[in-house]
Design brief:
This protein has 112 residues and is α+β, with helices and mostly antiparallel strands. It is globular, with a radius of gyration of 13 Å. The chain contains three helices and four strands. 25% of the residues lie in helices and 32% in strands.
Length: 112
């Protein structure tokens, strides 16, 4: 199964700049370390955004209905700007009043 509306997947800039790429965010700092090792930085956050949107085009591993909307999990390889890569599990949600998926978060699964 593919993510419904994957071609319109949206990643809010603050999810990357202030969370996933933040070395001071309480929940994002460990993810930021892994992403930094791949060459992703706050300065090149648009590269990470584009790579996450590409992951959204992959096969859905699981889905769940939540009070806010339908949530989906998709794993994919992030090949960083420095040539290093890692598999990440990404989470997306289609809110009840929307027709496109929004990026929620990502977790590293394995480094390659």
């Amino acid at each position: 199964m593919l993510l419904p509306g994957a071609a319109k997947a949206y990643v809010h800039p603050s999810k990357l700049i202030d969370y996933l790429l933040s070395s001071t965010h309480s929940k994002g700092e460990s993810k930021a370390r892994v992403l930094a090792a791949l060459g992703y930085t706050r300065a090149n956050w648009t590269i990470l955004r584009d790579d996450l949107v590409r992951v959204a085009l992959g096969d859905v591993e699981s889905s769940v209905v939540s009070p806010h909307g339908d949530r989906y999990a998709i794993s994919g390889l992030l090949a960083g700007p420095n040539g290093e890569s890692a598999v990440f599990l990404t989470h997306w949600i289609i809110l009840r009043d929307e027709s496109f998926p929004r990026f929620v978060t990502a977790y590293p699964r394995e480094r390659r």
